[in-house]
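Sample pair:
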Amino acid sequence: CPGRCSCDSVQSVQCYRLMEVPSSLPPTTKKLYISHSKIQHLQMSSFTRMLALEDFILLASGTESVENDTFKMLSTLKTLELWKNNSLSSLVSLQSLVLDGNNIESVAGPLALPHLRSMSMENNKLHLIPAGFFTSLQSLQFLSFSGNFLTKIPIDLPKSLLSLKMERNQLKVVRFRDMKHLENLSHLYLSENSLSSIDGVQILANLTTLELSQNQVPVLPFRLPARLQKLDISNNLIQRVTVQDFQDLRDLKHLFLDNNVVSLFEAGALQMCSQLSNLALEQNLLLSIPLRLPGTLARLDLK
């Protein structure tokens, strides 16, 4: 066991008052806790032998910088906590943060990244985004949590958001009233979840793209946002398409209704969609081509 460290076992090590990450740690170390030290810089060479490391907690150690690819070799890392350090102080101008595919199981905030515009944490193992996580991310415009285990959309999302991706999660319900402050949101991606209803989406008045494919939605959402240009609700359980469903969607250009169980398509249901150019209806239960389709259609899929 390295000096100034205590090893509870060959898998758990706690160290205090160090000048650098110890190089003589057992290669079987799974948890490393370092606190009250003077480790100014973290670099990849400090971790090359720690191929079993799952949890790394660095507390109050004056860390100012983290070298690129420092944690690249740590494919087993599940938890990374850099508490009370200055490791992000040099990143206050950061505009894009991508943490895709890192097996991250939890996050804590707030992140002090006031100029961050784009953040992606796709394909991790997140179950919950804690309240307050976005407090200091008031410039964020593009956010993706696709490919996680989230059961609800995070609360307190930044008002600045333009695009939100939540595909391939475990959403069953979307509480749009918790999103009413997202006045600028134009793109919302909710495909491949377990949604059975989409009520209240009209509250997102500036939404232009809504993707809901591969859910369990039985009816078209009531009162869709009037500025919608693309609606993908393919691979659901839609049975009916009526005039009322689309009467306010004059800007709609792309509509994907394929792979549903549509058996009723009212004549003229899409007549008010005066810009519709792309309509997908294949793999439904229709016995005939719907009547009075818009003359603007450039593509109609009925396979």
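The two ends are 68 Å apart (CA to CA).
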